TrEMBL record:
This is histidine kinase. SMART domains: HAMP (SM00304), HATPase_c (SM00387), HisKA (SM00388). It comes from Desmonostoc muscorum LEGE 12446. Keywords: Kinase, Membrane, Phosphoprotein, Transferase, Transmembrane, Transmembrane helix, Two-component regulatory system. Its EC number is 2.7.13.3. GO terms for molecular function: phosphorelay sensor kinase activity. It catalyses: ATP + protein L-histidine = ADP + protein N-phospho-L-histidine. PROSITE patterns: HAMP, HIS_KIN. The chain crosses the membrane at residues 30-48. InterPro entries: HAMP_dom (IPR003660), HATPase_C_sf (IPR036890), HATPase_dom (IPR003594), His_kinase_dom (IPR005467), HisK_dim/P_dom (IPR003661), HisK_dim/P_sf (IPR036097), Sig_transdc_His_kin-like_C (IPR004358). It is an enzyme of class 2 (transferase). CDD domains: HAMP, HisKA. PANTHER family: HISTIDINE KINASE (PTHR43065:SF50), SENSOR HISTIDINE KINASE (PTHR43065).
Length: 378
């Protein structure tokens, strides 16, 4: 019995070993299967993640690269999700549109400046031609006036000598002297020559101002006499200043400055024209209003010159004051204001002359522009 029991035990042990080996094999199979399943799931998840996240990000990257390389701002990133990637794509699309809008504005501004520059250049050439054509006959007239006055003075002296030497004229000469009012002629003729000389000199001043104003496209820095520049500009605008506008000049002791004469003419022309416009507008609204424009110049801190142009016109509202130097901004009716005058003046003062231009204004009290220019050119 013990022998059979031991045999049974050995058989059961062998069966247990077989079951244990099978269990170990099954365990290994389960582990290997789990690992393979994990790898498969990881691969699926990676593919899914790539499809959901990586591809949209790649699309965003590709569009961004194409926009920068091709400068094609009509490209847009497709927004396929509402998550963070979709928000990123929407933000990039908005940025592309904003850049496109800014570039279109800049292109329009550059185009307008180019057109304005061409217009001013054409105006300068036309003024130079007109000034030249006017200057030649005025020189003839001015030069001949000197000789004509000399000849007339000689004739008047001869006539007076004749009257002294021959006190008793014949009836015919006495009648002729009465008809031509000889005494009035002798007194008025010198006045006529003086008046013609004043007119010729003033015409020559206007011609000189036109010639100076025509130098809008000069490319070299020269020493500029600001007072002469202001006076020449006022001379050109004299016809508009005659309309009851009081002009006050407070000129200080300032030196010449290096700059572009024609461009500074353009700045002063814009500012003074605007000042005349605003006081005329206020005068039209209030007949009792006394329009006044004041020009002040002074030297500041030894290295700067300040030109102030002030008026007592309508003024500028606070919401518009910070926008007056922006291109295309204007408070004038469409077709009258281009919105370029002050923008170009700012460019000329700040960029061309390394100066500063500022504005202070109060509604119904007036406006003052301050132009600060360096005495030495950097």
């Amino acid at each position: 019995e013990l022998t059979e029991f031991a045999k049974t035990v050995r058989e059961d042990q062998e069966k247990a070993d077989i079951v244990r080996d099978r269990a170990a094999l099954i365990q290994a199979q389960i582990i290997i299967g789990s690992m393979l399943l994990s790898v498969a799931i990881a691969a699926i998840l990676a593919f899914y993640t790539s499809s959901i996240i990586a591809r949209p990000i790649n699309a965003v990257t590709n569009i961004a690269q194409r926009v920068t390389q091709e400068a094609n701002f009509d490209l847009q990133v497709p927004v396929t999700t509402e998550d963070e990637v979709g928000a990123l794509a929407s933000s990039l699309n908005q940025l592309i549109q904003q850049v496109k809008h800014l570039l279109e504005e800049q292109e329009a501004e550059n185009q307008a400046r180019l057109i304005q520059s061409e217009k001013m250049s054409s105006l300068g050439r036309m003024l130079a031609g007109v000034a030249h054509e006017i200057n030649n006959p005025i020189n003839f007239i001015s030069g001949n006036l000197v000789h004509a006055k000399t000849y007339t003075d000689d004739l008047l002296a001869l006539l007076q000598t004749y009257q002294t030497e021959v006190p008793h004229l014949s009836p015919a000469l006495e009648t002729l002297a009465e008809e031509i009012d000889l005494e009035f002629l002798l007194a008025d003729l010198p006045k006529l020559f003086n008046s013609m000389k004043v007119g010729a000199d003033r015409t020559r001043e206007i011609v000189r101002s036109l010639k100076d104003f025509s130098r809008l496209d000069e490319g070299e820095v020269q020493l500029v006499e600001l007072h002469a520049c202001l006076d020449s500009t006022l001379l050109i605008l004299n016809n508009r200043l005659k309309n009851g506008i009081s002009l006050v000049r407070n000129y200080g002791d300032i030196p010449t400055i290096p700059g572009y004469t024609g461009l500074l003419y353009q700045v002063f022309m814009n500012l003074l024209s605007n000042a005349i416009d605003t006081v005329e507008e206020k005068a039209a609204q209030n007949p009792e209003f006394s329009p006044e424009i004041t020009i002040t110049t002074e030297r500041c801190q030894n290295n700067w010159v300040i030109v102030r142009i002030a008026d007592n016109g309508c003024g500028i509202s606070p919401e518009n004051l910070h926008k007056i130097f922006e291109t295309f901004f204007t408070t004038k009716p469409r077709g009258i204001g281009t919105g370029l005058g002050l923008a170009i003046a700012y460019q000329i003062v700040v960029e061309k002359h390394r100066g500063k231009i500022s504005c202070e204004s109060e509604l119904d009290r007036g406006t003052e522009f301050a132009i600060t220019l360096p005495i030495s050119h950097a």
